[in-house]
């Protein structure tokens, strides 16, 4: 199955690298193919595509519906009742549906190799290729770190629920066989849905991380002799990639944000009602579902905000480069600054010795965001060209967007403020908090 998925999702007429790296990248693709086979994503033929959608409808629609209507257990004791099951099943199934449709669209349009930008990885530096390779392997571990604990906790709950329910829980023919089959189906349905949800979020994080590596590599052009044209072309390429990522994921991010917002506020509304009975057995799955949805949204928003922040830091770096070059040019003309300080500036270390007295690095300091001066190559780039480049960066800020809205930290603060306002409003209506 793994080889088939790899062959289907990777266009045969594409080459991603020279001969010495093709085998390495194929190994990386097999790693992701092993993750994709969890969702039976196969479009090589009509019947395989039909099988993929059949599995989706069975585990994402059929099993949850049967679970809710047949095993609602309204006549059970208080510990085995599931008053919030409708919210859990609907929220998780809708999130999985959004994710599955997105994955299906990505597979049909791009293929795994093109979707992960591996077809153009041979044009990048060795540092970028090595860093991206490490992130591909790390992302699969990250996917397992999110999926397996959620699956384990839900499996323990379902096994306890079926084993301790006795004759209260409906069964067919043989009580033990019936409950075992239903319990296994419900466990597989939960695993299937959360795997789809987290897989799309991890793929988005991975593609964003590639652009972070490219930006960090791009920052080195200001520390060596470079002409404005080459800097501009490279930035336009990165900006185009960010625009492509934004276009691919904008529907998924917006739909997920709306779904998670509605789901969490409905959950808050029903759990804060005076008649609601809240304990681990009745609201445990609701809490686990909420954690899953919020975590998936958090992965997407954090990745988008991080790459947007890095892209905006390029403007600050270019301005610093322009200022250092301009100051150095005037120092050489008027001989106002001792040559030792100019030499210090050329080495890239701070001129003012009190900046890093504790030898501590700021949070997230790197080539894009630090207090070190830029080595000066004033003779290679004229003042007018440097000024034009800085002006271009100021008016063409790159980043992840959703229908024109930049997903930066300010946008996240706005979301948090809106969510907090709605939360306080709901709490005021239910338990009287103002």
From TrEMBL:
Keywords: Membrane, Transmembrane, Transmembrane helix. Signal peptide: none annotated. InterPro entries: DUF3537 (IPR021924). PANTHER family: PROTEIN, PUTATIVE (DUF3537)-RELATED, RAS GUANINE NUCLEOTIDE EXCHANGE FACTOR K. It comes from Handroanthus impetiginosus. This is Extracellular ligand-gated ion channel. The chain crosses the membrane at residues 46-66, 86-107, 142-163, 175-204, 249-270, 282-301. Pfam families: DUF3537 (PF12056). The keyword Transmembrane applies. It comes from the Eukaryota. The keyword Transmembrane applies.
């Amino acid at each position: 199955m793994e080889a088939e998925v790899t062959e289907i999702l990777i266009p045969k007429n594409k080459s991603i690298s020279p001969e010495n790296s093709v085998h390495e990248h194929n190994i990386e693709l097999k790693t992701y193919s092993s993750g994709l086979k969890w969702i039976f994503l196969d479009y090589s033929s009509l019947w395989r595509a039909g099988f993929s959608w059949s599995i989706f409808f069975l585990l994402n629609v059929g099993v949850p519906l049967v679970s809710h209507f047949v095993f609602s257990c309204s006549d059970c004791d208080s510990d085995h009742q599931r008053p919030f099951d409708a919210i859990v099943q609907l929220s998780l199934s809708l999130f999985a549906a959004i994710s599955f449709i997105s994955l299906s669209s990505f597979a049909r349009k791009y293929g795994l190799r093109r979707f992960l930008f591996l077809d153009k990885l041979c044009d990048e530096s060795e540092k970028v290729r090595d860093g991206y390779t490490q992130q591909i392997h790390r992302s699969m571990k990250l996917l397992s770190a999110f999926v397996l604990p959620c699956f384990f906790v839900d499996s323990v709950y379902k096994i306890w629920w079926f084993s301790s329910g006795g004759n209260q829980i409906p069964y067919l023919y043989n009580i033990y066989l019936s409950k075992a089959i239903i319990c296994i189906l419900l466990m597989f349905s939960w695993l299937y849905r959360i795997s789809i949800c987290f897989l799309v979020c991890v793929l988005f994080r991975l593609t964003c991380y590639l652009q972070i590596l490219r930006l960090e590599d791009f920052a080195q052009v200001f520390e060596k002799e470079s002409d404005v044209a080459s800097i501009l072309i490279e930035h336009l390429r990165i900006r185009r990639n960010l625009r492509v990522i934004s276009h691919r994921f904008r529907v998924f991010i917006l739909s997920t944000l709306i779904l998670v917002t509605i789901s969490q506020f409905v959950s808050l509304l029903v759990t804060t009602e005076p008649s609601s009975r809240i304990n681990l057995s009745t609201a445990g799955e609701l809490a686990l579902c909420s954690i899953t949805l919020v975590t998936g949204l958090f992965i997407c928003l954090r990745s988008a905000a991080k790459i947007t922040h890095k892209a905006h830091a390029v403007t600050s770096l270019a301005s610093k480069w322009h200022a250092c070059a301009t100051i150095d040019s005037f120092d050489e003309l008027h001989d106002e600054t001792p040559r030792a300080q100019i030499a210090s500036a050329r080495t890239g270390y701070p001129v003012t010795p009190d900046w890093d007295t504790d030898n501590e690095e700021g949070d997230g300091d790197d080539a894009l965001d630090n207090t070190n001066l830029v080595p000066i190559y004033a003779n290679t780039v004229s003042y007018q060209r440097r000024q034009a480049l800085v002006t271009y960066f100021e008016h063409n800020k790159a980043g992840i967007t959703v229908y024109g809205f930049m997903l930066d930290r300010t946008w996240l603060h706005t979301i948090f403020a809106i969510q907090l306002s709605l939360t306080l409003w709901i709490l005021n209506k239910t338990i009287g908090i103002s």
